Amino acid sequence: MKKVAFLAGARPNYMKIFPVWKAVSAARLPMIPSLIHTGQHYDELMSGVFFRDFQMPKPTHFLGVGSGPHGLQTAKVMIALEELFTQERPDLLVVSGDVNSTMAGALVAAKMGVPVVHIEAGLRSFDRTMPEEINRIVTDAISDLLLTSSRDADEHLLHEGIPAAKIRFVGNVMIDSLVALLPKAMESSKPRELAVEGRSFVLVTLHRPSNVDDPTRLQLLMKSLAELAAQAPVVFPVHPRTRRMLEQLSSQQAGNGLKLTEPLSYLDFVALESQAALVVTDSGGIQEETSYLGIPCLTIRANTERPVTVTSGTNRLLDPARESLTAAAQAALKTGRRKTPCPIEGWEGRAAERIAKVLQQFLGL
Ligand code: UD1
Predict the structure, then answer these.
(1) In a domain, 26, yes or no
(2) How far apart are CA 76 and CA 290, in angstroms?
(3) In the predicted model, what is the mean pLDDT of residues 303-309?
(4) Could you tell me if residue 341 is inside a domain?
(5) Is there a domain that residue 177 lies in?
(6) How high does pLDDT run on average in the chain?
(7) 3-class DSSP assignment, residue 260
(8) Which protein residue's CA is at the shortest distance from atom 7 of ligand 1?
(9) Are residues 222 and 300 in the same domain?
């Protein structure tokens, strides 16, 4: 029996780790899986609710690291994980994405000689001002098996000197979560509660430091959203980081069609996302989900580590300091949804099965 530890720390990790956990369990491989939650995200709405939506067991280990500056947060994960691995040494650590917990986990495992598998390897924005870009580069450099979700990721890794034998294209596991839970999400009453059911509405998420940590930038974005809300209802579930910054802005934010809410559960969010006429975001995963769903997406960033969502999906990058968000939104609304299935290779809901097979092979089971 091989001990396989799965690591999750922040909201975007759950939808990448949970389908793999389930696929591994369903395959009845000779593995003892454990789920480690670092506690980078700890609020009920940023963590607990996702375990329920996905019907996941409670984490085997909770490290409780909480928030803090990058160095402190990363170090806390490393200290707690090193202690845990000293007591219970796994045969493999599986990490996903690009959050601080991902990199911290990979560093500890690599230094203790525990092989590391990175799900969603090889994404690059080529923008090192993004903390996630640093996390991606470091994690990929020390991982033993790099599982990619798009073909450009393979190319980046090869270009960085990672041997081809370590790289496996498996497709996008986040789409597995979406495909699996979309029917259940359609039962959500959230669109009705927010009075947008059956209406042409816009869904917004913003949480990147580059957008929300600078008050002038955030003020500009809120002004653009207020303009947009004069034309169509705008639903904006607010991330805790953004909430904190908004509280410091004196201007009136909500009202006139702009509906600010608490962070939503996965099912409620997917319900809104799949029914929205347009999504405005700076999230990575949402660029992918809208591309799968065929919903126009405006990404408020100068670059993306997911260019396939622009070339083959429904995503467009936009800088509201240079271009009117309202005008771009109108154009996107006019174009409307893509009616055909998602054309991106490996984004169909079966990535976790492929990952389970690759893990089995890697562990020699
Ligand atoms: C983190 C990830 C980011 C990801 C995002 C998704 C890093 C570097 N960033 O950003 O890539 O897109 O998660 O949500 O790992 N907070 C709470 N409750 C929580 C969690 C956070 O109130 O449960 C607040 C705290 O004030 C904290 C702030 O949010 O200081 C930021 O949290 P943190 O985990 O440092 O980064 P995120 O902005 O969430």
Answers:
(1) yes
(2) 34
(3) 98
(4) no
(5) no
(6) 96
(7) strand
(8) 99
(9) yes
109 Cα–ligand 1 center, Å: 23
Whether the CB-CB separation of 154 and 308 falls below 8 Å is answered with no
Cα separation, 193 vs 57, whole angstroms = 29
Respond yes or no: is residue 207 known to be catalytic: yes
Residues 159 and 36 in one domain: yes
The number of angstroms, rounded, from the C-alpha of 10 to the middle of its chain's C-alpha atoms is 9
| Threshold 0.90, pTM exceeds | yes
Q: What 3-state class would DSSP assign to 268? A: helix
132 lines ligand 1 (CB under 6 A): yes
Q: What's the number of CA atoms in the CB half-sphere (13 Å) around residue 146?
A: 28
Cα 1 → chain centroid = 31
Closest CA to 164 of 182, 141, 146: 146
* Same domain for 8 and 134: yes
- As given in the structure block, the two tokens for residue 242 are 């953004």
Residue corresponding to tokens 């919903």: 295
- Rg for the chain, CA atoms, rounded: 20
3-state DSSP assignment of residue 157: helix
Q: Would the CB of 42 count as within 6 Å of ligand 1?
A: yes
- Identify the burial level of 327 via C-beta atoms within 10 angstroms of its C-beta, where 0-12 means exposed, 13-18 middle and 19 or more buried: exposed
Q: Are residues 300 and 327 in the same domain?
A: yes
Crossing angle for the helix pair 266-275 and 173-185, nearest 10 degrees? 90
Please give the sequence-ordered ranges of beta strands (E in DSSP) within the chain, or none if there are none: 2-8, 31-37, 61-62, 92-96, 116-121, 145-148, 167-169, 202-205, 234-237, 258-261, 278-281, 297-299, 315-317
User: Could you tell me the CA-to-CA distances from 155 to 3, 123, 168, 291, 358 in Å, in that order?
Assistant: 31, 10, 11, 21, 20
Place of tokens 């169509």: 232
Q: Is 210 in the pocket of ligand 1 (CB under 6 A)?
A: no
Q: Which domain holds residue 7?
A: 2-172+349-362
CA–CA dist 214, 82 (Å, integer): 35
Indicate if 40 and 12 belong to the same structural domain: yes
User: 204-250 pLDDT, tens per residue?
Assistant: 999 999 999 999 999 999 999 999 999 999 999 999 999 999 998 86
**What pLDDT does residue 251 have?**
62
- For 184-246, list the strands marked E by DSSP: 202-205, 234-237
Total domains in the fold of the chain:
2
Is there a contact between 173 and 150 (Cβ–Cβ < 8 Å)?
A: no
Contact 328, 316 (CB under 8 A): yes
For residues 119 and 25, state if they share a domain. Answer: yes
